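User: Can you write out an input/output pair for a complex, sequences first and structure second?

Assistant: Here is one pair. Inputs:
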Amino acid sequence: MSADINATAASLLGFLHDGPMTGWDLVARAEQTIGPFWSLTKSQVYRELAYMADHGLVTPGVTGRRDAKPYTITDAGRATFAEWAARGPGEGTIRLPLLLFVTLGRHLQPGLLRSVLSEQRAQQAELLKHYLGLRQVLGELEDMDPHVLATLEYGITVARATVRWIDRLPPEVGA
Amino acid sequence: MSADINATAASLLGFLHDGPMTGWDLVARAEQTIGPFWSLTKSQVYRELAYMADHGLVTPGVTGRRDAKPYTITDAGRATFAEWAARGPGEGTIRLPLLLFVTLGRHLQPGLLRSVLSEQRAQQAELLKHYLGLRQVLGELEDMDPHVLATLEYGITVARATVRWIDRLPPEVGA
DNA sequence: TCATGCATGTAAGAGGTTACATGATTCG
DNA sequence: CGAATCATGTAACCTCTTACATGCATGA
């Protein structure tokens, strides 16, 4: 019946439940709230917005400052989103070159894997620190959505697990 | 100088360091060793193998049983792989609809998020059990590559972390 | 006024998925 | 003999990334 949408478009409809937003806003919002687990590029966003406007899932509002064009979700949009959500989250995509490096470790030049791992450890530790600071700040806000906090918590969990995993790697790895 | 390859092709070259393999073998190998963290489809594999054969990075051997065509990595292939590896692992891609669901939790029909989370918990717990069994078996093998074991360990770490994360989610999530 | 940030969009190409088509071999 | 598995490949399509092009607004 209603228009077919992909996961990217669906996520935009999801964000639009909070009120009208421009393409720019949507990119920023996604980046801030689920950045690492749900990437979006502006090209995708503008394309999906155009498609959805064509199909009546969103309606463009009056152009504001700097050509900003806010889109509002329609009833059809909400219905389409609900249908999409009812199908459940699919499998998702994970492609971690770091893990590929580890798997192929014995075919890499000596030392490369070790240096890659230690760099990665530093990055993850930094990220973890950043997340913890964010949790501190956001946790004190009055009407903070617990769902957004839960996503942050996942980031913390995974970053911490990754650091520990690197620390506990046996010395043969990368030797 | 040498041919430009993408990460997918590079991973195939990596696997081919272990000896000649057919496209079919490569898909199976990837699936078994880094399945969840490095997905490959056969279409991609056959495409990249053809491209690499064109550029002298691999050479097809004589067709064996059932049209099986084994590819052997060449010196140029090894050099190209080493160059690719020297550039380090890039950022990777992660796109988890589950996290999107959590983020958008308050816009989902009542109960949906909770049921999705409990299903996910069951899946992860199952996966964890599977990994632990695998570790048991592989750990006892004599000449098991510690790098492959390390990848498995990452899977265990992340699955465990995910289960705990779900268990510790505050009751407001999905309420 | 000049750099920076806001804001939209197009074009081209690379990468990835799905469906289709074909046939050999093995095992029960 | 029939089903399952091995094995290769093509075609169409969708999705995603990168580079390019344009211009308004703000603040130093």
